Sequence to fold (544 residues):
Amino acid sequence: MKNILATLLTVCTVVSCAQTQPKSQVPVLDYEQLNAQALKEYDQPVRPGYEGKNPYWNGYSTRFIYAPAFDLPEVEGAASYRYTASVKEQDFSFTAEKPNLALTPIWRKMPVGHVVLKVEGLDKQNQVVGLAGERKFYRDFPFQGPYQTPMRTYKESAVRAMMYIHHLPSTQAWEHGTEADMSFRYNTYPCKMVSAVIRNELMLTRFAKKSAAKALAIAKNAGDFLMRISQAPDAPLAYFPPTYYGNLLASALPANQGKTMGMEAAKAALAFIDLYEFTKEEKYLNHALGIARTYVRIQREDGSVPMKLDIATGEAVNEVNSSLHCLLYVFKNLHDKFGIDEFEPARAKAEHWMITRAYDKFELVGQFEDVGVEGLKPYENLTHWTGIPYLTYALENGERSPEVIALAQDVIRFSEDQFVLWNMEPGPNGYRTCALPGVWEQHKYRVPVDDSAGNLATGWLALYKATGDKLYFAKAKAMMDNIVCVQDIRTGRIPTIWTEKYEKDPSREVWLNCLLDDILALFLFSHFVGEESCDEIEGGQLMG
Fold:
């Protein structure tokens, strides 16, 4: 389900006691001014095709917060075009020279609701000579803060969530067991789930001293399991743990038999790096290095890595490329933590590909192990998970040129436009059926997911640090506060899916990779606002 916050398993570091406690960097927020700023910004379209940077990306989009522009053809004999948007029995119109321009002149006037847009060609006498096209979509709610007020700190919420993972029976089984507990169905995705357990338990040793020995045993046994089920050192995908294990959920699908997702092994590599850093046992570093070297071998000359590969041959099974942010964190950690620089050329190539291909052309296709990409048309399944994590990586690592900031702003605006739910209209029973504000995961899964909220929040926070624009921080804070608010105070559980239907289905477990993303984002915000003290965890970027 997730390419996690993505994916992100991110970089967690220990704050030295020699450092002083961080001071709060929270700006004073004037919501009247910020709400007005947001409305003004929504008048401008997100990377419209008529600019010539990329094709029109919104052919499959069904809702917009920013004024959209659609790829509609010119009408023969037309001297101008009349745009008419009908919503809630009201019509809003304007005239323009072309049929593919943004709805900026009427966007702020239109109420939230379902829209039918008709664009007609007019002759010089303003008579209709043809129809350029029609589009149906939902004009969605804008940002209008403030939102939820959490009753706990980010740090407390993070620690409670860590304890929730720790106390799960499938986690406890690792203390003395060497096999994944498959009664927890999502262990069928070991790179995600088992890696999340490893990283959670290693962090937990710094907070739960009485449980530290057990947590370390759990992390090591889980890590040894991942090593044992990995590909052999002489295999085409040497050292890669499998994306799919067992015969459950998406692992049972014929399309996934004998296949692996290109970036899943990078999530395991991050866990092995953490294990080595904590235990100093060379086997973990060696496995991480083996994974990294396989990536270098399969990386193409242009810097790309296939999104899905055949395990037996190591060959790509489709034309879609991976988003490389998780791999970049592997290379970065090996360099920054241990001084290993052999991967720096591959890292530079990957960074170049991400900027010049994935983002320049808005190729922000979904990268999820349980959603196929075979047969998808361009832009059919877009997601914020392909765009935000890399740009957060770039901004947090000092890439703050005007060009990179402009690109980051494009991607964050696209992500808000297509996936953020600031509000929703009540259902037939008179109440809203989702925890709000929230964030959809992808076009093929239009459901608010917990770490998707964290992904947008970390992106906005990175842009706030880079630009000082308080609206970015206000949006980030709204999402992080709701992550705290939806947490079950009794158990520490943060639900993966924020809908009424999910909560009524007891068979739906929490995706541990998503919950780990929540934990990392919570620590990131805790540190930023000054909650953290020395010897505690500083959060890192999500992996998605």
Observations:
- The chain is about 40% helix and 10% strand.
- The mean pLDDT is 91.
